Give the backbone structure.
Amino acid sequence: MNAWSSPVAAVPGSPALQLEAASDTEQTAVDPLYVFGCQIEWERRGDPSAAWEVIAAARHANEDTRAHALALLERMQQPKPESATDFMPVWMERRAFMKEAGMRMPYGLDVIESCIGCKASRENFFCRFSPTVLRSLDGASYHSVMPPGALLFVEGQSPRGVYVLCSGKVKLSTTSKEGKVLILKQAEAGEVLGLSAAISGSSYEMTAETTSPCQVNFVSRQDLMNLLQSESEVGVHAAKALSREFQGAYRDIHDLVLARSSSGKLARLLLSCAPENQKSEAELRLRSAMTHEEMAQRIGSSRETVTRLLSTLKKKRLIRLEGATLVIRDRSGLEALAM
């Protein structure tokens, strides 16, 4: 059963994880967000219990957990780089060591250990700063790798800081009192998450959950405010990011409220998922991890309604399924439906 045809979304469990209970033969990975939090408590407050948690993770039977904890331990032992020339030899040396030892990078990612010399940054990324400002950002940053299903922050939670998404995808959602979930958007690499809440000091407006292995760069609220006050360039980037958030929210509200029908909302959602390099082609091929439940959450409808609408679109020969790929056969017809 593929992602497009599956009517039920997978809901990951979230049991409390205790490292002390892990035996030598246990293979279940420990939540890297938990290990990362222990590392921060150890580094900032000298908490010995947090230190033992990180050390226990470094001895864990699971390879990903062990690699993640070892990377955190090594980071604590290394001084902050003064420049890209100081940093690159350490970075290259560590990578060479991991390859020689046959160790895997967590989740197969090309891990970014510093903002300085980062090759993942692109023109429109929030972190696209000048070298001087980049060094200031790096000094206030905590880099980490997150698995799919990790919660970065939760709606209503007091803001601890912001997350710069270096790679991967994060689902942003909100929930009603009745428990109905609405997916607001899917954040892509280069975006900063939790910015408005961190600046205003109000609670996070939404929940941020990773949908793929992600590399994130956490900056505490206090460090962010210090950067905003001392570096005008950070303020300009923050203003642009908030402006994009506002414009995106305005478009989403327009589409959600003013669309004539659920079929129009679904048609608009499918068209928005098309890759940019296919926009000029007659047929659009979409590979998506969205289930019917998640599509319903994106358009403010029910799973049953989405299943029925997709079936109708297939009968009208507007779309077809090829395994896990959804093909838009009649783009103009779908666009007319989305009007």
Observations:
- The domain at 110-249 is CATH 2.60.120.10 (Jelly Rolls).
- Confidence is low (pLDDT under 50) at residues 1-26, 80-103.
- Residues 232-258 form the longest helix (27 residues).
